[in-house]
Amino acid sequence: MSDYDKLTAHYQTINRFAHAQSMLGWDAAANMPSGGNDARGDAMAELSVHIHRLSTQPQLADWFSGVEQAALTTEQKASLREMKRSWQHATLVPEDLVQAQSVAGSKCEHAWRTQRQENDWVGFEKNWKEVVTLSREEAKIRSEALGLTPYDAMLDKFEPGTSSESLNTLFSDVKTWLPELIEKALDKQKSSNIIMPSGTYPAETQKALGLEVMKLLKFDFDHGRLDQSVHPFCGGVPTDVRITTRYDEQDFVQALMGIVHETGHARYEQGLPKAYAGLPVGEARSMGIHESQSLFFEMQVGRSKPFVSHLSRLSKDAFNAHQDPVFAEENLSQLYTRVEKGFIRVDADELTYPAHVILRYEIERDLINGVIEHTDVPELWDEKMKAALGISTKGNYKNGCMQDIHWTDGAFGYFPSYTLGAMYAAQYKAKMTQTVDIDAAIQSGDLSPIFQWLSDNIWSQASLHTTDELVTRATGEVLNAAHFRKHLEQRYL
Amino acid sequence: MSDYDKLTAHYQTINRFAHAQSMLGWDAAANMPSGGNDARGDAMAELSVHIHRLSTQPQLADWFSGVEQAALTTEQKASLREMKRSWQHATLVPEDLVQAQSVAGSKCEHAWRTQRQENDWVGFEKNWKEVVTLSREEAKIRSEALGLTPYDAMLDKFEPGTSSESLNTLFSDVKTWLPELIEKALDKQKSSNIIMPSGTYPAETQKALGLEVMKLLKFDFDHGRLDQSVHPFCGGVPTDVRITTRYDEQDFVQALMGIVHETGHARYEQGLPKAYAGLPVGEARSMGIHESQSLFFEMQVGRSKPFVSHLSRLSKDAFNAHQDPVFAEENLSQLYTRVEKGFIRVDADELTYPAHVILRYEIERDLINGVIEHTDVPELWDEKMKAALGISTKGNYKNGCMQDIHWTDGAFGYFPSYTLGAMYAAQYKAKMTQTVDIDAAIQSGDLSPIFQWLSDNIWSQASLHTTDELVTRATGEVLNAAHFRKHLEQRYL
Lengths: 493, 493
Fold this sequence. Notes:
The structure is a homodimer.
Chain A: H1 3-30, H2 37-55, H3 59-66, H4 74-92, H5 95-117, H6 121-146, H7 150-158, H8 164-190, H9 203-216, E1 224-228, E2 234-237, E3 240-245, H10 253-270, H11 287-302, H12 305-319, H13 329-335, H14 353-368, H15 377-389, H16 416-432, H17 438-444, H18 448-457, H19 467-475, H20 481-492
Parallel strand pairs in A: 1-3
Antiparallel strand pairs in A: 2-3
Active site (chains A, B): 262
Protein name (chains A, B): Metal-dependent carboxypeptidase
Catalytic activity (chains A, B): Release of a C-terminal amino acid with broad specificity, except for -Pro
């Protein structure tokens, strides 16, 4: 067996344990009763340790150095590159640091759940200090090994190939036009008459409606299912994708669009190439590209007028409420494009969302690079929120810098993915329009031409190319915020 | 760390992988869409290989021989005994034989699914021959290592400590009185007027009813749940027990009692001692003892008149059918104690069930011991069915010797567990009656005194004692078929 084949077999083995881990994680969120938690935690930790052990096995170094590059096809070279990337990420950080981070992160996150509710910055800061210190250590180690700035080395975990240089350019651009666009959209919205949902919408009916919408989006039910969990997510494995949502019986709006969003993630997973199943090269390219699929489904398709027309028809049928003005096309469309300045990122609309992300990006970048200290964060947050959305979070930590889970356990470098995804999605749309009549496809109820484009250009390409290559092959250029601006202007002006 | 502590840590590690395997198995039966099957199969096979590797790791031999027995408490000695038993079972059979059995068993079982429907004994016999040959090889190896007859060595996998000598005695006794008892019960039944279910019983309502019955049986919903699968079973782990059932919307009778049965299995698992969680000594004693709990719940409690009175009340409420004579106490009681001679074991009632088991036991015992050949089975089956129940299976393989899945993949030695379980359950009841007013407890709706007895005597004892010790400590004697006979006579005469 060649060294390349040994590596391939080894990563497929790792993937089978990751399958178990993924399913146990989904089950813990969707099914598990509370009393199952401790034993499940132990089992999942054991799987993590085992996967880490396999991922850092000493023979890997020999196999990687033994591979004869010349004998490999282009695809095999890409596969090798991704296995190597995976190996480097697993081996870069010393185990005692990983362990210390895990302990500090769990402690901080656990306490945060109470501290946030109590607006207790002082208590939070004590735990968080350690998390930040350890993340900076991690960033330093990664930085030296990868020849990147500390923050860029953290970004690389989620968005390989993306740098703060390019993010600075993209986000500075957004900051020049976003505040004004938000004001104009709010102005325009003033004259609209919106009817809010006020009935009772049984979870069972919402689920049935969600399943209908998933059919319209050609979710493959032979390879996945829809369930419920407190925090909606897309989990499972490509051959069996598990998406979840949460139903509010007083309001169907969010759960329904949440299903559209998760279906975007799911179709990417379901559409990954079978030929590379179980290998790093067969996985989604990055968090930003993953988000580009969920946001293409949600923002480019889901909230478009022709799709809202389907939602109107299907929800009238589901709730047997053909005369209810809430479900009228125009009203649903307004509900799904409503703009509001708010404190909370996860509740934010499409237009204000980038402001929340850019603020976090600027703070975490400077924090990890040592330009600011963790105690500077509340004040910076307040300043930046005032600048971006005109609202102050002074003394309001719970709705300010303590609102997200990400930083509590050291996931620095993740936030940009959300807005990168939204930008990629707008760029695909602009390119797709050249060959596909998108609105007509949506209107017809057969969205296949749209999905075919995504499959050809994104899903089937998995991690065969770098992100920049992938996007350039798909759209003819690297990421360009102009498409995002144009999309938002068209929708909100 | 002492060798004993090393062993303990090692078996706890194995158990965490077994947790993953058990949950993936449950999920495959209860949730997984068909397209997920291949990748799931690979993941589960990888876990099996890994568990096998851990179970046969060379250091184990050193650790076992290094343990200083004198330093151990009684409980630790029991724990050591059970770890050793687990190790011996894993190491006894050479890997190439295990592999050959797995291949032959899968092939035979897979083809059997079609062959059974087509009554194709000739086709089945060709595959089954190999399964029998390999099982005999396995039995020979186990026999030599354990100093038991070949069949007893196979029995030992499911019922440690049970021998065909004792089974011969128990079952010969049953054969002296069972046929006459069946005839008398059938005679008595002739005069009864039974009303069969004829309505539509929605699955959702049946599930709600099932959950009510589980509450009555004090199933711990913090540590388990109820779902659906094609073949009902009890899976999961002790801290998170997953029971399943299947609903027939034309008939609620079987699903409802199936839930009672699986709840018995579940409460045993939920009641295993926390102090030995994750260790072989903390697991259920044997298949027969497991079945004794499900059958105690089903036969001793579930089909008793005071419990059927609860079922009557709860099902009238659930189906909103207070006037429907099907749900009347007396009618439900007749439905749940109806006797019928039939071909199929899984459809058999309490009274004829032992006849099905004893016939299988006699055939598999002689087959594994080399007294008969696999080609003799159809004729023997016909003879024994005529003797036991007066019905012939000549030429009727599908409802004769080809009806069960067990033998298709070599699970020889399992069948006796079913009737051993029924006998143990009757013996517990006889003993329990001396200190607990069982009928009064059931009538009151608070069955705690019954469960306390089972917890004290069975659940909390896990595998701390051998089966004979366990039963003697609980009831003052080893297994005695007289209690089973008395129970059946009281119910059916």
